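Practice set, problem 2.
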Amino acid sequence: MSKTALFAFAAMALYAGWAFLAKLATRTIPAEQAVIYTYVAGLTAAAGYLLWRGGPVVATTRGIGLALAGGLLLGLGTITYYIALSQGSAAVATSISGMYLLGTTLLAVVFLDESLGQVKIAGIALAVGAVVLLAQ
């Protein structure tokens, strides 16, 4: 298994735990407050990793701008996701919001010249079908 796949599987497991705990949190506190606590913990984890890893801090205007824009989208997306969790089924909220992967894939194909062969297209079709079934 490649390092990319290994880290991706680890991320999947961590995201599953995060989504489950987010659902539990929104049962007892408002969604927007749960997001703030989540982000404080996430920033703590990221800063801890940066310190542990060591090395130089790289700062470019373009990189910082893109990261800030991405963070804004992530924050707004996380708030809407937590609201969805607080309104109903974790399976529905997570399945539908998880389709951001499809959007990312299409953006990467169009703007980053990444390839999208028949196997990947079939995988996307199956993922869309799974979300349709889970959202019922």
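Problem 2, part (b): a different protein.
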Amino acid sequence: MKKLSTTSGTFAMNILQSEATTMPLRDDFPPSGSDYLGGESDGYEYRTVFGGSRLESTYEMVRQFLAEEGYEDVPLPKDAEELRLFRLPTRNKQILMFEDNGYVHNPIKILFPQDRRKRSTLILCIYNEADPQHLLKFHRILERVEAAKSE
């Protein structure tokens, strides 16, 4: 067995300590304005885009990311074929503004982009469950209440 030098050993120890102190996104939601692993957070919603050569590989990337970030208990479609069943059949942009085009299960949304040419792209949205109005925001109840007030 090769013995690490003191410098290498210290470096390796720092990496291990760094990894040990990194909390999954579910336990330590990124604050507003932060850039976490290529995605953006407003403190309530974390949004990132995945793109692979095929939808199947993209969906596997999403599943792996969710498992690593503490969301392994959230029910997901079993595969990309089942995920496709959640795509809205319409191309009407007005309807797509008010409906989620993809799979939704609190606290995540796996959405298809509006541009149907991006067949192997998925948008992952994760919502901060610690927010006091999480359920009202996640299910867009507050948006509906505000829209009703303005009518």
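Answer key, part (b): Helices lie at 6-21, 55-68, 80-84, 93-98, 134-138, 141-150. The first strand starts at residue 35 and ends at 36.
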